Amino acid sequence: MARGLDRQRHILDFTLAALLRRKGKTGALVAVYTLVVFLLASALFFGHALRREAELVLKDAPEITVQRSLTGRYAPIPKEYAGAIGEIRGVSSARPRLWGYYYDANSRANYTLVVPAENQPDPGTIVIGSGIATLRDANPGDQIGFTGYDGAAQSYRVARVLPEGAGLVSADLILISERDYRALSGIPDGEATDLVLTVHNAKEFATVAEKIRQRFPDTRPIVRDEILRTYDALFNWRGGVVAVLSGMAGLAFVIFAWDKATGLSAEERKEIGVLKAVGWETSDILAMKFWEGIAVSFTAFLLGVTLGYLHVFWGGSFLFAPVLKGWSTLYPNFRLIPAVDFGELGAILFLVVVPYSVSTIVPSWRAATIDPDAVLR
Amino acid sequence: MISARNIGKVFNQGRPNAFTALKEVSFDLQRRETTILKGPSGSGKTTLLGIVGCMARPTTGRIFLEEREITSLPERFLTDIRRRSFGFIFQQFNLIRGMTALENVMIPAYPLGERHAELKRRALATLDLFDLAAKAEAKVEWLSGGEAQRVAIARALINDPSVIIADEPTAHLDLRLSEEFMAIMRRLKADGKTLILASHDPIVYDSDLADRVVELRDGAVAGSAERA
Amino acid sequence: MILHPALLALEISALLCATMVVYAACFGMGIVRYWNLASGSETQLVLERQTYLVSTVLSYFLAFQLVSLFLFIRTADSICHLFVGAMCAVGTLTVNAFGYPTLALKLVNFLLAGLWLILNHADSRGYDYPLIRVKYLLLALVAPFFALEAGLQTLFFLNLDPDIITSCCGALFSPASRNLATEVVNAPPLPMLGILYGSGVLLLLAGGAFLRRGIGGYLFGGANLVHLAVALAAVVSVVSPYLYELPSHHCPFCILDPEYYFFGYPLYLSLLIAAVTGMGVGLLQPFRKVASLAETLPALQRRLVRISLGAQAVFLILCTLPVLFSALSLR
Domain ABC transporter spans what residues (chain B) (predicted)? Predict the structure, then answer.
C-alpha cells in the first residue's frame, strides 16, 4: 500500500516537473481550458445568483396578489372586491394595496411610492429612502415638490429618512399617506392598486386562485410561487443558452485538447520511449497522463471558477450584462449576492472536465503504448 | 543464465512491407560473462538486444531467464523482470533534457515505489561511484560528453540489475571516451555484472573484455566464438 | 425538456461515457475472439495493448459515475420548485416514470463498474491473464446497462415538463399510500436499527472468519449485497428522521443538503465503498483455484475485506451519531 502511494507520488512529481518543462504548451492548454471554465462558471453563477435574488425579494411578497385587468391591461381594482375575496375559504385575509412609481424628470430617477399598511405618515409628510435623500439633497424637515397626475404641484415635508443599509430595495422608496397618494396619483376613493391575500396552506394556492377567477372574471390572481417559477424557468433558460454557447466553445476546446494530446511532440514521444525503455510500464505512463490531466484540469477549474466568481460578484458581470439584462426592468438596482452551490460546480465539472478527460483517454493510451524498444531503433 | 531458442522476429507481419529482422537465432549466456554481439548495422543486433532485454517479444521462439520461460509473459510482468534484471545504456545516452543528473538516475526506480529519501541516497551514492556527486544537481544538457555517458551508466545501475545491456555504446564517442567507457565496463565486470554489448566498433569487439562474441548477419547467427 | 445547465452537463457526460464504455466493450469482444497468449504475433501485441485502454476507460467511468450519482440527486433537488408540489429531489424524480429507474441504474452501474475493476485488478496479478475471457464477456454483459442508463436519463430529462403536479416526499412516504417505500418507512424504527446493527455484526463475523481462516468468501460477498439493502432501508426509516428531528420526515435525499452539513455524502460514500469491496470478495472467490492467481488472490481478497469492514464501520458510526445526539426520540 505504502509502495503504491510512493509510486504515485514519484510519478506525480515527475509529471509536474515535465509540465513545467514545457511551459509554452502547458500554458496554452491551461489558458484555453481556463477560459472555457470561466465562461461557463460566469454564466452559471449569474443565473444562480439572479434566482437567489428573486427568491429573497419574493420571500416577503404576499402569497397571492390580485390585479384587475381590463382588455388585458392593468387597471385599479375596486376595494369592495377585497371583502368578497376575503370570504373565500382558505383565504385568511385580503387587503387592498396602494403603490406605484413616480418618474422624477429632473433627476431622471424612478421612485417607488408605497402607502404602508400600518404607521402611515401624517398627511402632508413623507418618509423617503436614503437614495432619494442623497439625490434631492433632502433632510428631515425639508419640503419636496412633486407633480401630480393633473399637473398640479404637490409639496410634502420630509418626516424621516429611512436608514441606509436597509437594502437597495428601500433606497428609492417613498412612504406616503393614503390621502396624499390619491391626490398625487388620481386613483379615486374606492379603488386600489391591487389586493394582497394571505393564504396559509400552500396546497390551496391553486384552488383559491381558481375560485377568484370564477367569481371575478376581470381579475388576475398571481401566485407567488408562479412568479418564482417563471423567473426560474427564465433564468435557467438563459443559463442554458449560455451553456449551449459555452458548450460550443467547449467542443472547440475538446478538439484543441485532442490535437494537443495526440500531436505529441517528437521530444515528448522520445521521452516516453526512454521512460519505457528504462523500466516504466504502460500503466505507469497512463498514471502519468492521468496526473497530467488532473493537474491541468484542477488548475484550470480553480482559476476559471475563481475568475468567474470575481467577474459575476465583483465585476458586475460586465461581459454578459448586455445580453442577459432582461430583468433590469424588474429591479433597477440589482446587485448580486454571492451564491454558489455544489450543483453549479458539479455542472461545470461535467461540462468541461468530463469531455476533456474523455477526449484525452485514447491519445494518452496511444502515447503509453509506445514500444519500449522504440528508442533502440 | 539466458537461453535463446530459435528466436524469430517479423515486423509488419502479413502485410506487403513485412520484414524479417531475426530468424532462428539461438545462443546461451552464462552469468558474469561478457558477450559481444557483432555485426554490421541492419544485421539484427538491436532487435535481438531488445528481445533478450525483455523490451520486445519475439514472433517465434522462446527465451529462458534462469530457467523461467519469459516469452509469453504480459508486459506488466516482463517490465518487472526487465527493471530488476537489466540495465540499459543507449546509443545516444537518451537522458531526459531539462532534468538534473540526479533525477535522470532516479527515473528507472520511480515505478518501484521506494521511499524518496532512500532512493535519493542510493542515486547519490551511485553518482559518486562515477565521480559525479558534484554534478548531481546540474541539468543534463550542461554536462560534458563524458559526464553524460557516466550519468547514463549510473542510471542503468540504479535498480542494481545483474545484466547490463549496451547498444552501440561507442558509436558517437571519440577514442578517449570510448576507452573510458570500456574501462568502466571492466570495472562492472569485476563487480560481477553480466554484460551484453552490441557493437561494430573494434574497440569493443576486439577488447579482452569479451568472453564470447556472437556475430550476426542478416538476422541470423553467422558465427559464435568463445574466448578463453 | 428543461434547459438547465446541470441537466445539460449530466446528459452530455452520460452520452460521452456510455459511448466510451460501449467502444471499450467492442474492443473487449475483439480480445475475447482473437486472444492467444502463446502467440508473439503483432495482432496479439495490439490486443494486449487494448486491455490497457479498456481498463483505463472503465476507471474513468467509475469515477464519473460516482460524481454523477450525487450530481443527479443534487440537480433533481435544485430544480424541484419547477414542479408544483415537489419540495425536494423525490418530487422531481416522480415527475415521470423514468426518474427512479435512472437513479437505481446509476447506483447499480456504479457497483458493476467497481466490481469489474476489482476483477480486472485481480486478472492483472496473474502472469497469464487468467481471467481475460471471463472479464471481457462480463464487460459485454454489463455495457448494455451503461447504455441503458444514458437512454433512461435522456428520456427522464426530455419528459420533464414543468408544472406537473408531483408528490413531495411527505406525500410519497405518507402512510395513506401503500407501496414498498412506505413499508420501509413505516418499519418500526428501533427494530430496524436493531436489524442494521445485527447485519453489521454478521458482516464483521463473516469478514473475521474470512481473514482468519480464509473461508466464507461467497457468504461475505452475498451478505454485503443484503446489507446494502438493509442499510438503505435503515437510512430511510431511522437515520433520516433522527437527523431531521422530525418523526415523519424520511427523505433519503435531503440529508445531502447543506442544512444537514452534507451529512449524506460521507454516509453514502462509506456505504458504497463497503458494498463494492465486500461484494468484490465474493466475485473473486471462484477464481482462487486458478494456478497463476493462487498466491495473489487470497491476499487481494483479504485486503478487500479489510477495506470493506473499515468503510462499513465508518458507515455504522455515522448512522449512530444522529441517533445519539438527536433531540428526537422514536422510542
Answer: 2-228
Q: Judge whether B113 and A10 are in contact, CB under 8 Å.
A: yes
User: H-type helices in chain C, by residue range?
Assistant: 5-34, 42-78, 89-93, 99-125, 132-158, 169-172, 180-185, 189-213, 217-234, 240-244, 264-284, 296-325
What is the number of domains present in chain B?
1
Contacts of B79 in chain C (CB under 8 A): none
Decide if A196 is inside a domain.
no
Q: Does C48 touch chain B (CB under 8 A)?
A: yes
Provide the residue range defining the domain that includes A126. 99-186
Contact state of A247 with C12 under an 8 Å Cβ cutoff: yes
Domains of chain A: total: 2
User: Cα–Cα distance between C317 and C239 in angstroms, integer?
Assistant: 11
CATH code of the domain containing B47: 3.40.50.300
Domain co-membership, A181 together with A242? no
Mean pLDDT of C190-215: 89
Q: Could you tell me if A247 lies within 8 Å of chain C, comparing CB atoms?
A: yes
Question: A116 and A180: one domain?
Answer: yes
In this complex, do B75 and C37 lie within 8 Å of one another by their Cβ atoms?
A: no
Instruction: DSSP letter for C296, please.
Output: H
Shared domain check, A238 and A368: yes
Mean pLDDT of C307-317: 94
Write out chain B residues lying below 8 Å of A376, CB-based: 46, 49-50, 55, 90-91, 167
Is B72 within 8 Å of C45 when comparing Cβ atoms?
no
Q: Is C6 on the interface with A (CB under 8 A)?
A: yes
Indicate the domain borders of chain C: 1-172, 175-331
User: Is residue B146 in a domain?
Assistant: yes
Contact yes or no for A240/C5 (Cβ under 8 A): yes
Query: pLDDT by residue (tens digit) across A275-310?
Result: 998 889 999 999 999 999 899 999 999 999 999 998
Question: In this complex, is the C-beta atom of B132 within 8 Å of any C-beta atom belonging to chain A?
Answer: no
Tens-digit pLDDT profile for residues A193-252: 888 888 877 767 777 888 888 888 888 888 777 777 776 666 666 666 766 666 766 777
Whether residue B13 and residue C41 make contact (CB cut-off 8 A), yes or no, is yes
